[in-house]
């Protein structure tokens, strides 16, 4: 049986809030993918890549899972903040998500790989701070952000290598 306790905070489940928090990064990421990365597979294939670069199909699969986990973390924290009258952590989350979306334009659409690397380093810092803040409010939410930190750390190395090789 599927354990849905991860969707409940202090005995409360808010399906609308859950859907909103998960759909914003997934739909936003999909739109960015369509707008910023047209012909990205072709561009990615043509780049000189390091040996640790994954095939292009890995990215949409990984990001769908990461966006879902991020949205679930945001959902859990938003319920805690409301129930316990904690200060809002959404601005930090929103800035890192905005930087996440901007990266695709920098790297693929505009070919600014060095700028994309710097932007991603800043984004990783904000993700780490967001994750720490989430962990302080809800340990499960903080844990849900760990794969995101891992993936963006990996992507930072990949971005740097591609920038240097191209």
Structural features, described:
The chain is mostly helical. 77% of the residues lie in helices and 0% in strands. The chain has 7 helices and no strands. Helix 1 (15-36) runs antiparallel to helix 3. The longest helix has 27 residues, at 58-84. 27% of the residues are buried.
Annotate the secondary structure layout.
Blueprint (H helix, E strand, L loop, with lengths): L14 H22 L3 H7 L11 H27 L5 H20 L3 H25 L1 H6 L1 H20 L1
Helix pairs in contact: 1-3, 1-4, 4-5, 5-7
Shape descriptor reads elongated
Treating each run of at least 4 consecutive H or I residues as one helix, how many helices? 7
Report the uncertain regions. none
Estimated radius of gyration: 17 Å
Mean pLDDT: 92
Strand content: under 5%
How many DSSP E strands?
Answer: 0
Task: Summarize the helix and strand pattern as letters.
Answer: HHHHHHH
| Terminal-residue CA separation | 49 Å
The largest sheet, given as strand count, sense and whether it forms a barrel, is: none
Helix coverage percent: over 70%
In terms of structural class, how would the helical and strand content be classed?
mainly alpha
